[in-house]
Specification:
2 copies of one chain form a homodimer. In chain A, strand 1 and strand 2 form a beta hairpin. Chain A is an alpha+beta fold. Chain A is built from 5 helices and 5 strands, in the order H-H-H-H-E-E-E-E-E-H. The first copy, chain A, folds into 2 domains: 78 residues, Arc Repressor Mutant, subunit A; 62 residues, Ferric-uptake regulator, C-terminal dimerisarion domain (Dna Ligase, domain 1, 2-Layer Sandwich). Strand 5 of chain A pairs antiparallel with strand 5 of chain B, so a sheet runs across the interface. The first copy, chain A, binds a DNA duplex through helix 4.
Chain lengths: 161, 161
DNA sequence: ACGCTTTCTTGACAGGGTCAAGAGAAGTCG
DNA sequence: CGACTTCTCTTGACCCTGTCAAGAAAGCGT
C-alpha cells in the first residue's frame, strides 16, 4: 500500500461513499486541475484523453454522483450548458463572460453580505444565495471593440444603485 | 376592454419602437397580471386563452423583442426553463423553489451591496450582478415533511459564513 | 388606399440532458 | 481465493426547450 499522501483521490471517493472507478478518478483529476469550470462535454473530452474511452452518459452519471456527494459543485449560467468545479466548501461566486461563456471565480470580499439576508422572503424557506456576475472576459474585451450593445436584458447594471 | 383611454399598453409598445399587435398586447397583459414569473409555455397558454391561437414561435419572438426593448426581464434559474417578468427598472432579486421551480421577487433591502463589487474580477469587465436565492416555497414546505436531504449541490448555505 | 416593413405561421432542426435495460466491474463475505 | 451482491458503465432511444428559415399576413406612414 503506497503512502496515503501519494494520491488522495481514491480515498476522497470512498469517504463520499462512492466506488473507485477509472472514470471517476479521471473526472476528479480533470476538475482538480481545471480552474476553468468546464462543461460536461469538456470534461468528457479531457477524461477520454486520460483513460481512453468513456461514454457521455458515464460522465453525466459521475458528475451527478459527485454533485450529490458534495464533491463538486454544478453551476448553470443562463444560456450556457452546466459547468462544474471541484472547489467546494468556501464562499465564492462566479463571473461569466456574456460573449464566450467563460467562467471564473470571484472571491466574496466582504465578511457580511446584508443583501443576502432578505427580510421579505415571500414565505419561502431560503437556504442558499447564489451570485453571478456578468461581463466580458479579458479575451472578449479586446475582441469586442465595437459598442457593447446588448444591454437589453440587464437586470440592473452595477452602478445603478 | 372597451374603455377609452384606459389602456396604456399600446403606447408602451410604440414608445419601445414596437408595432402593436394582438399577441404583443396579450403577452404584455399576461405579464402585467402575473406575479408568478411564468415560463414561455405558461405565457403562451395564457395568451391563447385571451386571443385564441398564437404560435409558440410568436411568443418566443415577442418575448425576445420585449426583452431587447427592456419591457420585460428574462430570468433563467438553473434547471428551469426561462421565465419572464414585466417588473423592470428596479433592483430586486429572485427566490426559486428547489422543488417546484416557483419564483418570487425579493426586495433588495439594503442601499449598498458590498458583495456586488468584487475587488478581484479576474480581468473581467463586470457590468451586472445577479442574485438568486434558493429554498422552498410555502406550498412545498408543507408537502416536504421529510428531511430536505438534497443538500449536495449547495454553493454555500446561508449562515455558513 | 398603397406599399414597405415588421411580425406571425409553419415546419424542420439542434443542443443539452434524461430515462431505461443490460453488460460489466468493485467491494464483500464465506 | 472465489462466488455473490450491488453499484457503474455502455448503448440507444427519447424529451424538452429553444433556434433557424421561408413565406404569408398584418401594421403603419404617406
Amino acid at each position: 500500500m503506497p503512502t496515503a499522501s501519494a494520491d488522495p483521490r481514491p480515498e476522497r471517493l470512498r469517504v463520499a461513499g462512492l466506488r473507485v472507478t477509472a472514470p471517476r478518478l479521471a473526472v476528479l483529476d480533470v476538475l482538480d486541475g481545471s480552474p476553468e469550470h468546464p462543461t460536461s462535454e469538456q470534461i468528457a473530452t479531457a477524461v477520454r484523453a486520460r483513460i481512453g474511452s468513456v461514454s457521455t452518459q458515464a460522465v453525466y452519471g459521475v458528475l451527478d454522483a459527485f454533485a450529490a456527494a458534495g464533491l463538486v459543485r454544478r453551476i448553470e449560467p443562463a444560456g450556457s450548458p452546466a459547468r462544474y468545479e471541484s472547489r467546494v466548501g468556501d464562499n465564492h461566486h462566479h463571473i461569466v463572460c456574456r460573449t464566450c461563456g467563460a467562467t471564473a471565480d470571484v472571491a466574496c470580499v466582504v465578511g457580511a453580505a446584508p443583501c443576502l439576508d432578505p427580510s421579505d422572503a415571500a414565505g419561502f424557506a431560503i437556504d442558499q444565495a447564489e451570485i453571478t456576475f456578468w461581463g466580458l472576459c479579458p479575451t472578449c474585451r479586446g475582441r469586442t471593440t465595437a459598442a457593447p450593445s446588448g444591454q437589453g436584458d440587464a437586470p440592473w447594471p452595477i452602478g445603478d444603485r
